[in-house]
Amino acid sequence: MTWTPDHPIVSIRDVEKSFGTLKVLKGISMDVMKGEVICIIGPSGSGKSTLIRCINALNDIQGGSITVEGQEVHDHKLDKLALRRKVGMVFQQYNLFPHKTALENIMMAPVKVLKEDKAKVAERARSLLKKVRLEGKEDSYPGELSGGQQQRVAIARSLAMNPDVMLFDEVTAALDPETVKEVLVTIKDLAAEGMTCILVTHEMGFAREVADHIYFTDKGVIVEHGPPTTFFDNAKDPRTKEFLSQIL
């Protein structure tokens, strides 16, 4: 099937995932349209991070299907590099190379993996640093940057592959409170530009502000979902109400 923008850019159907005897995802389904911002929330161990790691095939699945732009992610014939060009991911830990500058960290994958022209990639990397509000930090090493700045370099590094979808896995969880905002502003800017974003987050105010749709997971299932106003102000499920009462 040829994918068109009137179909979901990411479609998750009845996905099951186990680690040994532990069943982490128990039949998860959701659709994400191009340009949508989806926030996945829930208690620790509810399967949130596992789910988004399955979207770009960092985790395999035992049942169901995940398609990105109509392509089955877990088809063993699928070129994983082609998938990771389409689907960027930013993790809780920044994983920057400490011996490379901010600019060099951003340039590495396009130059080494995609074999793109170094001068063109450098130009793109500089504009991405400007986009994430780090102009002037091109020659700084990770150890010279705050956690929030390092995380923004990690976001720019992911964007350097020109993805169609961005996954964010609790990207502010390891940050000091004062640096959380600068990372969230960066993600908000991306969303405003129309980037499709799927976020696992504990930042409820942010989720309410930027998400088109909120999914609440617990014990490997989607308990409840809906647009932010409905979800936060009029949750129906007792488990959702209990969770929200503890964090809001």
UniProtKB/TrEMBL annotation:
It is a peripheral membrane protein. Keywords: Amino-acid transport, ATP-binding, Cell membrane, Membrane, Nucleotide-binding, Transport. Residues 10-244 form the ABC transporter domain. The keyword Nuclease does not apply. GO terms for molecular function: ABC-type amino acid transporter activity; ATP binding; ATP hydrolysis activity. Coiled coil: none annotated. It is found in: Cell membrane. Pfam families: ABC_tran. GO terms for cellular component: plasma membrane. It comes from the Bacteria. Belongs to the ABC transporter superfamily. This is Amino acid ABC transporter ATP-binding protein, PAAT family. It comes from Antarctobacter heliothermus.
